[in-house]
Each structure stands twice: as C-alpha cells, then as structure tokens.
Amino acid sequence: MKISENKQPFPVIVDNLSMSYGAQKALESVSGTFEPGTLTAIIGPNGSGKSTFLKVLLGLLKPKKGSVKPSYAKLRQHAAYLPQQAEVDRSFPLRVEDFVCTGLWHKIKGFHAVSYRQHEQIHEVLEHLGLKGFEERTLDALSGGQFQRVLFARLMIQDKPIIFLDEPFTGIDQRTVNDLLKIILDWHKQGKTVVTILHDMELVKKYFSNAILLSNKLLAWDTTEKVLEHKDLWKVPVCMKSSEKSRGDS
Amino acid sequence: MEDFFTGLFEPFQYTFLRRAFVASWSLSLSAAPLGVILVLRRMSLMGDALSHSVLPGVAIGFFVAGLSLTAMSIGGLLAGLLVAMAAGAVSRWTSLGEDASFAGFFLISLSLGVILVSLKGSHVDLMHILFGSVLAIDDYTLLLVAGTSTVTLIVISIIYRPLLLECVDPIYLKSVGGKGHKYHGLFLICVVANLVSAFQSMGTLMALGMMMLPAITARFWAKQVWSTILAAWIFGALSSFLGLLASYHFNYPSGPSIVLVAGIFYLISLFAGPQGSFYQHKKTYGQGTS
User: Fold this and answer.
1) Could you tell me which of A99, A195, A43, A52 has the C-alpha nearest to residue B173?
2) Residue of chain A nearest B177, judged by CA positions
3) pLDDT tens digits for B219-272?
4) How many CB pairs under 8 A join A and B?
5) Could you tell me which residues come within 8 angstroms of residue B70 by beta carbon, excluding any fewer than 6 positions away?
6) CA–CA separation, B39 and A219 (whole Å)
7) What ipTM did this prediction achieve?
8) Which SS3 state, helix, strand or coil, does residue A71 take?
9) A1 located within any domain
C-alpha cells in the first residue's frame, strides 16, 4: 500500500559515532553509509549497542563523538522510527485511531485538525494491517502483537522515505511477524531505506541485502553474505533456528 | 419532599455558601484534568509532594507582607516551581528517577517550611494553612481561584495533544522533533499554580483532594482520557455541592466535608464502577485472583 510518493531517500552517512553511559562504552567509533533504498539488518548480541546506535543516529541520545549527515533536523523530517515496545506506555487509555493519528505529527502538530482525507487514510492503513474494528479500542486493551501492528500503522501514516526499526519482531506471534515482514519488504520495493535491528538470523539471511554486525565496536558493515562469514559471528546467539520451516515465502 | 428540596437548596441563599461553592467548583474544573493526567502518568503522589513543598514559600511571603494573599501566593508558587524544577533537573541529569528526586526535594522544602512557620507564627497559623477555610472566601480569593482555573484550562487545551503524546510515547515525540519536557514543565507549573491558588483559601487538603479524588474515582467510570476528565468534573461538582450541604446541616468543617464526600464517591466506585472495579474485576477474572 502506497500513500504518497514524492519523497526520495538520501544517503545517511555515519562518521566515527561513539557513545558511552558513564564509564560503560556502548558504541565505539562506528562509521559507514546507509545507501538510499537499501534493506539493512543490524545484528549483535544483547547489550552490543544496537538500540543505542539507532538512538544516537536519530539524535535521541547525544553522541560522545562523531557525527551524522545530514543534520538531525533533516533526518527527523524524513526518517521514521519504531521504538521498542517497552518504551511506550501501553497502559494509557488512548484510542487506537488517535494513537495512529500521531503519525501525522509533521502535518498537524499540536493544533491542526485531522482532515477527512487523513481520517480515511488512517482507516485504510488499519484495515491493511488487519485492525479494522479496532479504531475505538484503547491501547491498554491490545495484545503485544496487535500493538505492534498499531505501531506499524503509525509508521505507514508517517510515510517517510527512511525507516529505522528497533526489534520489530520481538515477542510477537508468527503470523504477525509474517504480515509485518511483508510490509517491510513492500517498503523496500517502494525504494525506501529500511534499517532494522533483528535477532533472527534466518530472516536476515533470507530477506536482507545488507547487514551490520555490532559488538559495541563495528565488526562488519557490508552485504549480508559477507557479514555472515565474519569470524566473530559466533558471538551472536542464533535464535529461532526452527523458524524457517514454519515460514513460507508468502 | 418539599422539605428535602428546601434542605438541598435553601442553604445556598447565604452568600458565603454560594462563594464557597463557586470557589471549590471552579477549583475542581481545572484540578480534575490535571489530576486525571497525574493518575494516568502514575504520578498520583506527585501532587501531594508538590503541595507540601509550597509551604516555605508561603511562610516567607507571610513574613514579608503579613497575611497578604498575593505575597503568600507568589511565595508558594516560587517554592513549588523551584522544587518541581530541581526534581526535574535531577531526574534528567542524574540516574535518580523523578519520583525519588521529588521525594528528596519536597521533604527538604516541607521541613524548611515547618521551621519557618514555627519561628514566627503560632500553631494556629499552620493549622490555617493546612486546612484553610472555604467559608471565608472574599472577592479577591474567588477571582484568584477562578482566574487560575481559567488560565489552566486554556493552557491544558493548548498543549493537550503533545502533552498526552509525551505521556504515552515520549521517544516518538522526540523522534519527530517535539520538545516533550517543555510540555511536561508547563503541566507541572499548572499543577503548582492550582495547588497554590487553593492553598490559603481552602487549604492543602482541599487543593489536593479536589485534584486527586475525583480523578481517581473517574477512572472507574470512564474508558478514555476525555471521558475520564468529564467524569472527574462531575464528581468534583457533586462533591463540592454535597460537601457544603453536609457542612451546613451538620456543622462539619467545610473543606474536609467536601473532600470526604469525594472520598465516599471513590469508595462507592471501587465497588460499583463499570471500569475495573472490584465487581467487574471479579466478573472478568473470577475468584481467587489478585
């Protein structure tokens, strides 16, 4: 499903990015470029700085050293970000429709009304994600999988050319993973730049053209094939080996 | 039956009772939405902390200008804001959470306040500040309470959307370039201003009671944010009315009566409310669960 075109992704250049929490080094001089239209997976063990990398990249955390091009302001204008589920307060009784509406932030800000057309878009997107009839539900009445679909609905409403996803498939049932993966692949087909943190190596191997291997330091940033041959890959827990047989090519 | 209605409305022919009703009702108009957001953010006790932290400012205002409402209000506002800002800064720039840093600063502030009051005032002054007197409200106080209420409602409706987003999904708000902490700061200023405006006229108990009790009660009756606020308004107005009636007929102190009525609504709602009350909880989860 395509909502509007007109926006082309641009390269995102990471230069010597470093970050630490107190004395704890979370990220050490990471450099590289996200080329427009690439589909990149970020892999690495827990605590290897993957989430920190995305947050520093988007200016949500201030880096110790290094820089990102273009500026944070431009990135915010053109990039969408999916936080980990735990970072959203799901106990808040906000309606699903209102929550998805916040994806229009750049257009409606604090005061502007949501137009009839935009309402229609939201309904279309919710239907596309199998959430028809959920508009009036409140966030506290959703399951983990349903809530992840709602977060994806918001990403689709944001409709940005560059998309960063922090563990979109963690704690989610197989059917939802399949549906959301399809959406990610659609974005890729539309020419968007998509970067996602993943733990499922089989998925990475099968669908992602590029990969980044992090272990606080940058171990590899290359095509998936080359990254998966890296000598330190054993550090990454190979989870959900069995997932391949349950997942068709759909 | 006629007697009943006479008993219900006749007391309000007295100006002092009408004033008291208008004051506590307009306080509840702005305090209710603030309370609802505090409850939803799991910051229910923050109001308590803030109301205590106002004391040294009020005391200094009293020393400088005597029993001047303006001086004490300004003092209280400054003290409350100082504590809120200090706590906010500590939670932002250290690893201490917001609740813990609030606790630290409000205790310092409260103890300072009690010492200041005991230096000059008598025990009676302290009691007056803590319990206030709804029945002795003059024009100026009424204007102060109503004015604060109006400004608060305007501010909250202006920042409503980003404020709620900051509560639910602060990282998203940041990722689209929103300045979440500014909205949170404005919200805290409103909380302090409401506590202060109700402070001397009605006392801390009233200020807090009208903010938190209708909001907590409303959670058992409504599902969404706006409807919870609406329900809180209704409970606030009912509590003001019935509390003042009780205070008139049975000669109870007025402020505590209003708060007690609000508390009774809360207790009833605990059992009878359609949203997540004991009754509904049992229906959903059966017996033997927490």
Assistant:
1) A99
2) A76
3) 999 988 999 999 999 999 999 999 999 988 898 888 889 999 999 999 999 988
4) 62
5) none
6) 46
7) 0.82
8) coil
9) no
